[in-house]
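Subgroup meeting minutes
Present: P.N., E.W., G.H.
Scribe: E.W.

1. P.N. recapped why we're keeping a running log of single-chain structure predictions: easier to compare across weeks, and new members can see raw inputs and outputs side by side.
2. G.H. added today's entry (541 aa).
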Amino acid sequence: MKKFLCALLSLLLAAGCCYAEEDFFIKHYPLSESGECIVDDIPFLTEPGPDDNNRVFYEIFVGAFSDSNGDGIGDLRGIIDRMDYLNDGDPDSGLSLGIEGIWLTPVFLSPSYHKYDVTDYYTIDPQFGTMEDLKELIDLCHRRDVKLILDLPINHTAKNSRWFKNFSNAHLLNNPGNQYYDFYTWATEGDTLPAGRTFAKEFGTKLLYEANFSDQMPEPNFDDPFVRQTLLDVALHYLELGVDGFRFDAAKYIYFGDNAACVAFWDWYIGQLKAVKPDVYTVAEVWDGEGVVEQYLPTTSCFHFAASQAEGLIANTAKGGDVNRFTAGMEMYIDRAAELGARPTLFISNHDMDRAAGYLTAASGHMKVAASLYLLSPGSPFLYYGEEIGLRGSRGGANTDANRRMAMLWGDGDTVRDPAGTTYTKQSTYTVKDLSRIADSLYNHYKQLIMLRKANPEIARGEYNALAFADTKVGGFTCAWQGSTVAVLHNTTLREITVDLSQVTDIAFTRLAGAAGQGEARLEGTLLTLPGQTSVVLREQ
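Output recorded in log:
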């Protein structure tokens, strides 16, 4: 398998990746007379890979990804139709991107385009489809060994939710015996409010409710056992439905300003999920300094924000920076995560950030180098939809996150449109269709990296050891797993550089297992010559 995949990488580039549209751009699965999707004739994986949660995940902002019904809004059926693009179920085909997991932003009933203010957690928003669509997507993912996780925003709900209406009515009737009376954190007008927290007033009353994000997003009272059980039941429902786990939004705000209390809550909540599904995949948004993030790691993996965005370690290294500084930082991060029982979880950007293609351009090669740095690293990296085609988007002066969540550019007639409120006008002119036909495109670079990672499983799962080179920006690391060791090395500069491996390791790497980048690398004894903006994987034999 490994030899085949490595050979396939070369064939992929040599062929220019020119596929017919019907091969992978979109596939409408046939429906039976009862309306069910017929998938029996499609090749699927039947067994999960080793160490199941060390996967490449793909974040999909559902409303902007792919539109199946012509209303301009991305939906679950659109994702189902695009599964051949994401993962066609055949690891040997080389036709799909090869992602191993999908993170869906919220799909629940909600009054907003982004769906982070949930009205009903048990109803799929009609803009996105139905519960049957979600079940079908889960089944299709599992048949192809793709994990599916849902974004679960429980720190706040929509104000128009049944829970808040019951809460408001209980106060209006002055009925503290009602189980919803303390469902949300509340105070009365004139009370001394907790410092730093925001409360909104319920119209026509003296009732105040906590709403740190928006007056339309009231926050549940997590000290109430009924609240805890109610919100736990939501997650348990979707685990029973078949989802593989969750991304927890705003995890550090459950108890605003009190990380110890937040950690205790998540320890209980995720512990309950693990009791039902021991391998449940969880990752939390704890957007803070490393000292704060580490408090959460014994309970759940967390996104590594310190390495993300324009000034993060990945971007700074990708722009010709010193790889040795990058690998030293990664070694500290990976070792600490392992010590605390968490997975490394790298990413460049997500739906809350300016898109990476705005500060790591494809033309400069920096976007490719950044992709190499984080995808050829251990753990579970996440790529944001459209990152592989250089999709752009910036909040800018308009101060709207909609600009960061613009429509995927397919180039094949997909009718998905930008979310309402977008003002960004500097979007990329390249589509999936365009870039699939260019051998050295960013899209094909991403595909190549994921194939390299799969062909060398030590990268995702192995024990990480930085290789400390001196007097050069070339750097790398080794990963040892199940008695086998590989080395990954990067040259982020524009010039060719030769390094002597014997100066940094006693391991005899004899084979160039794969390369990705701008030039052709050479291994001659212990001397490795790396062209500019090129990365390689070396094996012992």
